[in-house]
Amino acid sequence: MTLGPRWSSGAVQSGDYDPNALTLNITNGIRSPWKGIREYCYSPARATLSADLTAGATTVTVNAGQGNAFPAPQAPGSVILVLSNSSGTKREVVNCTARAGDMFTIQRAWDSTAAQAFSSSDRLELKLTGSNRTHDFFNVDGAPLTGSVTAIRLHPQAAMRLERLASQRFDGGNPVVRPIPVAMVIRAAEGFRTAQWYEADEALFDPSGPALNGVISFHDNRGLIVDPLYVASMLSDLLTHETALAMGARGPRARLVEVPAVGHVPPLMDPSQVAPIREFLLG
User: Fold this and answer.
1) What is the pTM of this model?
2) 155: Cβ contacts below 8 Å, ≥ 6 apart
3) What are phi and psi of 251, to 5 degrees?
4) Cα–Cα distance for residue pair 164/159, rounded to 1 Å
5) Looking at the DSSP assignment, which residues form a beta bridge with residue 225?
6) How far apart are CA 243 and CA 152, in angstroms?
7) Which domains are present in the chain?
8) Does residue 184 register a pLDDT over 60?
């Protein structure tokens, strides 16, 4: 398990933190907080076909305005949709490569299904899996998140390792009662590529290329929101010596200072602890 020393490529201001929503707005480029997998999540979407669809058609149109509930893929990404009739006797999985309003460009007969004809009264639905559902994450008021988001998830084994470290560090080896963050969610960050692994502290980019910015939140394995200040204090307190050395090597002015006989963040009550910080800030 590798933890990242920062979540932003630039300085984060106090006004970027929302203590009521427990979110953090990052405008200088988001970085991965840990080694994890980047996945894209969506809200459920369903629509009714506005016209008959032949078995060979590569575009499908739904009733006016209903297409806006669906993601709009950008090449080379795509999303999976399901065509079905009201009785459930016909079903076809298709790959959607683009959406323009209420019209979808599709590739037929995916997931071992056969291309079939459908009627104007039939349905089109976004296919969601267990790991790409936005509503599995919750706001501070308990309401599920909506829309498209990007999630950076810890590997399950790494999440277990983080829980064990927290138990040993904070709870004397007893079962952890405090929340363990396992996912960082970037709100309104839509994407369509397959899942990708990211290293801790690796910069994130949106599908068009620029650095990814936006509002982030952290969540435990139940999807409940976790205060980013709590996450920052927990991760900084669990940084290994190797990670601290790597942090010290990142910048021309960075320097690793080890305080003897202190097993946590120094309380800064001793002049010898304050002096290195004063020297760094004042140059």
Assistant:
1) 0.79
2) 35, 36, 37
3) -120, 160
4) 9
5) 219
6) 20
7) 14-41+134-228 (no CATH), 46-126 (2.40.30)
8) yes
pLDDT tens sequence across 57-110: 999 999 999 999 999 998 888 999 999 998 889 999 999 999 999 999 999 999
CB 42 within 8 A of CB 72: no
Classify residue 252 by burial, with Cβ atoms within 10 Å: 0-12, 13-18, 19+.
Answer: exposed
Of the candidates 255, 249, 247, the residue with the CA atom closest to the CA atom of residue 275: 255
Specify the higher pLDDT residue, 260 or 79.
79
Q: Element (H or E) spanning 156, and its range? A: helix 156-170
The span from the CA of 41 to the CA of 144, in Å, is: 13
* Cβ neighbour number for residue 270 with a 10 Å cutoff: 11
* Rounded distance between C-alpha atoms, residue 101 and residue 279, angstroms: 57
Residues in the chain: 283
The single-letter DSSP state of residue 132 is S
